[in-house]
Amino acid sequence: MNALLVDDSRLARTELRHLLRAFPEVTVVGEARHAGEARTQLQDLQPDILFLDIHMPGETGFELLASLDVAPHVIFTTAYDEYALQAFEVNALDYLLKPIQENRLAAALAKARTKLMTPAPVSALAPAAGPEPEEPAPALLTEQDQVFVKDGEQCWFVRLADIRLFEINGSYTQIYFEQHRPLIPRTLQHLEQRLDARVFFRANRQQIINLKWVESIEPWFSNTLKIKLRGGGPEVEVSRQQSARFREMLSL
């Protein structure tokens, strides 16, 4: 994967270049200090990934993207968290807050790798070349990934590690983190496909718990378990089938 770094801070570019040395599949093909330089280098170098700062002299990172007919996959790098919503509106792969952590960078590059490996759609005018490829499975999220959550007029950018419970609430799923309880239009089945099963456990038809937030476990009726989570929220009754799976997973 060829990457272009765009940031008005030489120190920030140097630090990011240093972090990227841990990922031999990534080649930094150029650097730019502002949108004008970036636009020229994008045309000349055709990178796969654009690491893009938001606040720069002249045009912002968003204004640069708006001026492009075609853009590579974008990973925003910024010291400000208030632009997360706008970043997702322009289909950014990820939004990394400075100082950038290596595990977050690794997760962002995994998303880029998945996108780049997905075959481009075939034109309807092209002759058929066999059966259509299966739709790729959604990229697995790690507990260190940050996800954008919106409920009404409120928005959050939250680490999955900080979410202790997902619970069905009508036709929505309620998320428990800190003191917040937003609702999102996602099913537990969809979330289960995206979450790391070593951390997020499907306790029953209604709830997925973060195992790292378990405070206590006690035997319950008919050989089931009841789990209490740190930080509040309802006690979770684990179904009989999942109780057996829980014991099998976590026993020595």
TrEMBL record:
- Superkingdom of the source? Bacteria
Q: What residues does the HTH LytTR-type domain cover?
A: 149-252
Instruction: List UniProt keywords, sorted A-Z.
Output: DNA-binding, Phosphoprotein
Tell me one GO molecular function of this protein. DNA binding
Residues carrying 4-aspartylphosphate: 53
- Please give the InterPro entries that the UniProt record associates with this protein: CheY-like_superfamily, LytR-like, LytTR_DNA-bd_dom, Sig_transdc_resp-reg_receiver
Q: Which residues form the Response regulatory domain?
A: 2-113
State the name under which the record lists this protein.
Answer: LytTR family DNA-binding domain-containing protein
- Gene source species: Hymenobacter endophyticus
